[in-house]
């Protein structure tokens, strides 16, 4: 057990936290090139930034990277090349496993690789490389405090319309305007009691229904999910402009604190 792990009453299982990083996506919306997680931000692959972000948290003692299915060996070599920068990173072990066809399947394969003593799991997109450590710590702490599922999220800046989707640029009829004050834009890492997340993946896979985030599966089981405050810098690199924003955030960090 690492020094960061919570002291438990005698006879109770210690809490040990792992981060699963799904990194097996192609990055189609980013445009042609290497798989998204391997593209460089400020000269360092996006995935390395994401692993460092998880390893920077005292709570995280294991990171499982879910690599493109044909690229696990390359990802292993890459991670061995880049040291885990950060004061507490040397307590963190990093495993690499091959991913699947969908994000959901990649996360499931990451869960399968977890050792038995892991009790808390954070699931974090490689595509959110700049999440501040405070967000990681908060999510982990709220799960460790007893919440089965915790999601970082932000209030919306835009008004949202529900539409009847049309293809080919046709105007889309609006069917409603949800009350913005009650909406949140969801980020990662999402944190879970391990047993809850594993059960959610097993049940949703059996039902054959996809989900765009892990907490959504837990919600469908009728379990409690809570939101904590996310961070602007935990945005997802999805389209080309997001790369520009990520480089700008890194430049500002360098200027501010020599990161
Ligand atoms: N089969 C997949 C698909 C996605 N992901 C991961 O899930 C995260 C969120 O997915 P997204 O940002 O949508 O990435 P891509 O699927 O790569 O993007 P796109 O849809 O543009 O191809 C990313 O870290 C991505 O690598 C994954 O591990 N396995
Ligand atoms: C998990 C997620 O990042 C939460 O916002 C998001 O749902 C992933 O969606 P994507 O379409 O796979 O990028």
Automatic annotation (TrEMBL):
The protein's annotated pathway: Isoprenoid biosynthesis; isopentenyl diphosphate biosynthesis via DXP pathway; isopentenyl diphosphate from 1-deoxy-D-xylulose 5-phosphate: step 2/6
Site entry (Positions MEP for the nucleophilic attack), positions: 180, 236
Pfam families: IspD
Gene Ontology terms for molecular function: 2-C-methyl-D-erythritol 4-phosphate cytidylyltransferase activity
Catalytically driven reaction(s): 2-C-methyl-D-erythritol 4-phosphate + CTP + H(+) = 4-CDP-2-C-methyl-D-erythritol + diphosphate
Site (Transition state stabilizer): 29, 36
Gene3D superfamilies in UniProt: Spore Coat Polysaccharide Biosynthesis Protein SpsA, Chain A
Keyword Transferase carried by entry: yes
PROSITE patterns assigned: ISPD
EC numbers on record: 2.7.7.60
SUPFAM superfamilies in alphabetical order: Nucleotide-diphospho-sugar transferases
GO biological process: isopentenyl diphosphate biosynthetic process, methylerythritol 4-phosphate pathway
Keywords: Isoprene biosynthesis, Nucleotidyltransferase, Transferase
Family: Belongs to the IspD/TarI cytidylyltransferase family. IspD subfamily.
HAMAP family found in the cross-reference section: IspD
NCBIfam families, per database record: ispD (TIGR00453)
Function as written in the Swiss-Prot or TrEMBL entry: Catalyzes the formation of 4-diphosphocytidyl-2-C-methyl-D-erythritol from CTP and 2-C-methyl-D-erythritol 4-phosphate (MEP).
Name of the protein this chain belongs to: 2-C-methyl-D-erythritol 4-phosphate cytidylyltransferase
Species the sequence originates in: Streptomyces zagrosensis
Lineage: Bacteria, Bacillati, Actinomycetota, Actinomycetes, Kitasatosporales
